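Write out this protein's structure.
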Amino acid sequence: MVSALNAHMIPLTPREFQFQLTVEQMAEPSVTVFVARNGDGNAVGMASLKEHGEGLGEVKRMFTKPEVRGQRVGSALLQQVEQRARDRGLSRLVLETGEAPGFEAAWRIYERSGFTQCGAVLDYPDSGYSRFYEKKFA
């Protein structure tokens, strides 16, 4: 899944403005990885929650395989991330995604899930190649 996501992302944005967790970083205790599987048990999507402390979480590595797009797999994964964030007592989720053609489906998922655009978050540069979102929990 990670290599499929990287292959999809690399052509869309200059490499110096891609901020991907490595597989090793995804295995750190501060990261929870969710994997969606089809009826045969094959992975068809993934998403991660990275906890930054002080009530802040970050959505990372959202991806669904092309053959399941439009089937709401991404939305289901994002719901799992949000539920985990609430269960962990987080008060705010943020994310960075691309600001270029090819990211429209991601924007729709985040906006339909109640995320709103915001300024640069964490230590990401405000380069014009990124779009930032946040969602606050009551």
